[in-house]
Amino acid sequence: MKALVIGAAGLTGRLLVDKLLLDVDYTSVVAFVNKPTGKKHAKFKEYIVDFSEINSYKKYVVGDILFFCFETALKKRENPWKSDLIDLTGFIMLAWKNGVSSFILESSLNASSDSWILYLRMKGILEEMISEFYFEQCIIFKPGLLVRDETGGMSEKIMINTVRVFNAVGMLKEFRPLPASLLAEKLIKAPKVLPTGISVIKFERIFTL
């Protein structure tokens, strides 16, 4: 299989690419980024793209599965979330038109098109728009608190430990800390074991998938 990746420079995306390169089911991994990742591998290819001109890269957006791990703004500009949403939607549409059959979205537990937090609003809008593209298989992951594998800052450690205390007494289960490396593994496993159509994976189901 050939994997296409958006967000290869982000927390989950970096780990996802590393694990895809080790997976024998994938013969090629192609990342679309706005700056070099520095990654070198026989199966890996990256394209430095201007997402506002994505049609210029149409011939490269060809594969079996699109992994979408978008985490930050593509570029600084006025109303970046609206511009980015248009650019990202254009990329998804291009992949669909080019015959990509599976779309895997890393969203967020609190993603909503009505959210006052722009990042969560964008994720929510993307979730709602997915059904318009008619991918054969569409899988939406909605993780809660992501934990980086490397040591995080003090505030991050305090937050994670606090949530774990509540988890121990049966509270805030939906925010159970999820290692980013484990999420990457589940993103790769999902299209292999889940049926066609739209699947939404959240809470404990991410751990048990």
Notable traits:
two-stranded parallel ribbon, 6 helices, alpha/beta, single chain, 7-stranded parallel sheet, 209 residues, 9 strands
List the SSEs and their pairings.
Layout lengths: L1 E5 L4 H12 L5 E6 L10 E5 L16 E4 L11 H18 L4 E5 L11 H12 L7 E6 L3 E2 L6 H15 L9 E2 H14 L3 E6 L1 H5 L1
Parallel strand pairs: 1-2, 1-4, 2-3, 4-5, 5-6, 6-9, 7-8
Helix pairs in contact: 1-5, 2-3
Query: What global shape is seen?
Result: globular
> Order of helices and strands, N to C?
EHEEEHEHEEHEHEH
Q: How many alpha or pi helices?
A: 6
Q: How would you sum up the major sheet? A: 7 strands, parallel
Average pLDDT, to the nearest integer?
A: 82
Helix share, percent: 25-40%
Number of strands: 9
β content, as a range?
15-25%
Q: Uncertain runs with pLDDT below 50, 5 residues or more?
A: 73-79
**Rg value:** 17 Å
Strand order of the largest sheet: 3-2-1-4-5-6-9
The structural class is: alpha/beta
**First-to-last CA distance:** 21 Å
The gist of it:
Helix content is 36%, strand content 20%. The protein is built from six helices and nine strands, in the order βαβββαβαββαβαβα.
Task: Give a written overview of the molecule.
This protein is of the alpha/beta class. 36% of the residues lie in helices and 20% in strands. It is built from six helices and nine strands; from the N terminus they run E-H-E-E-E-H-E-H-E-E-H-E-H-E-H. The protein has helices at 11-22, 80-97, 118-129, 154-168, 180-193, 204-208; strands at 2-6, 28-33, 44-48, 65-68, 102-106, 137-142, 146-147, 178-179, 197-202. A seven-stranded parallel sheet has the order 3-2-1-4-5-6-9. The protein has a two-stranded parallel sheet with strand order 7-8. Strand 5 (102-106), helix 3 (118-129) and strand 6 form a beta-alpha-beta unit. The protein is globular, with a radius of gyration of 17 Å. The chain starts with a strand and ends with a helix. The model is unreliable at 73-79 (pLDDT under 50).
